[in-house]
């Protein structure tokens, strides 16, 4: 990442194209969701752009780390976290998504003066965002509790879908284990930026292929207990992953995410 001066005078980092640069949550109840994540991660909130409706940015140590937006009131879409990947030209990236067998669901469109975005899905149906920065460069803080730490794609076939991301974002790939094609790490400029896990028939039928966002915490067990105490639930606990010890949890609206400690893998 290279440093750049943000519009409010603070120093932020430009995220190289192809690296996760933001995480956004879409929910039905903004007030209750802000209360939950504020209590869990210590986030405060400020207003963000409104290209798709009401939107706030989560702030930690005066840096923006994630976003929360309001879903349409029809109640058809579930609450979910979506990772955004940086792009130097979101229109070109969206066209590449289409040509590689993916789908462009929203955009590309301008988010006020903050930047330009698209919401897309890969050929297996996993949803992610693409962000072309203008005034808003993406997350401004990593490596401390309460910040996004890692993103992992759970899909049917890791090796097959990795070709899609490698083409769209010019991302290299490395197996986590040399003889296991179902665990792949995407790399940009030599840095590990995201994981792909091929679960095959073990993939949960109620979710299908999906991206999971990990947030760093000091203690996974305490964080999982805190999630439950705040009205969420623990989906899976005590996993030892390539990036540390993790638990998969869900907030009160059912949006699934993970908490991780002892982060071992450098992130983009």
UniProtKB/TrEMBL annotation:
PROSITE patterns: VOC. CDD domains: SgaA_N_like. Residues 19-133, 147-262 form the VOC domain. Gene3D superfamilies: 2,3-Dihydroxybiphenyl 1,2-Dioxygenase, domain 1. Transmembrane segments: none annotated. This is VOC family protein. It holds the Pfam family Glyoxalase_6. SUPFAM superfamilies: Glyoxalase/Bleomycin resistance protein/Dihydroxybiphenyl dioxygenase (SSF54593). It comes from Streptomyces gibsoniae. InterPro entries: Anthracycline_SecMetBiosynth (IPR052164), Glyas_Bleomycin-R_OHBP_Dase (IPR029068), Glyoxalase_6 (IPR041581), VOC_core (IPR037523).
């Amino acid at each position: 990442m290279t440093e750049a001066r943000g519009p409010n005078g603070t120093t932020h980092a430009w995220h190289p194209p192809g690296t996760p640069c933001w995480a956004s949550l879409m929910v039905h109840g903004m007030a209750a969701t802000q209360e939950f994540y504020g209590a869990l991660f210590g986030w405060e909130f400020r207003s963000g752009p409104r290209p798709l409706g009401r939107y706030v940015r989560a702030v930690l140590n005066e840096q923006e780390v994630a976003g929360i937006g309001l879903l349409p009131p029809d109640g058809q879409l579930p609450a979910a976290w979506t990772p955004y990947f940086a792009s130097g030209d979101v229109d070109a990236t969206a066209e590449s998504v289409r040509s590689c067998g993916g789908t462009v669901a929203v955009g590309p469109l301008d988010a006020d003066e903050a930047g330009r975005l698209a919401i897309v899905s890969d050929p297996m149906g996993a949803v992610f965002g693409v962000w072309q920065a203008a005034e808003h460069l993406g997350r401004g803080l990593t490596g401390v509790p309460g910040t996004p730490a890692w993103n992992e794609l759970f899909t049917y076939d890791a090796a097959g879908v990795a070709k899609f991301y490698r083409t769209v974002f010019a991302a290299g790939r490395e197996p986590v284990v040399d003889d296991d094609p179902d665990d792949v790490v995407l790399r940009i400029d030599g840095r590990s930026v995201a994981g792909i896990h091929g679960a095959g028939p073990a993939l949960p039928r109620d979710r299908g292929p999906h991206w999971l966002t990990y947030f760093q915490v000091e203690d996974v067990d305490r964080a999982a207990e805190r999630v439950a105490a705040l009205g969420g639930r623990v989906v899976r606990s005590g996993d030892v992953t390539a990036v540390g010890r993790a638990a998969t949890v869900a907030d009160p609206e059912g949006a699934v995410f993970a908490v991780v400690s002892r982060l071992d893998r450098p992130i983009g």
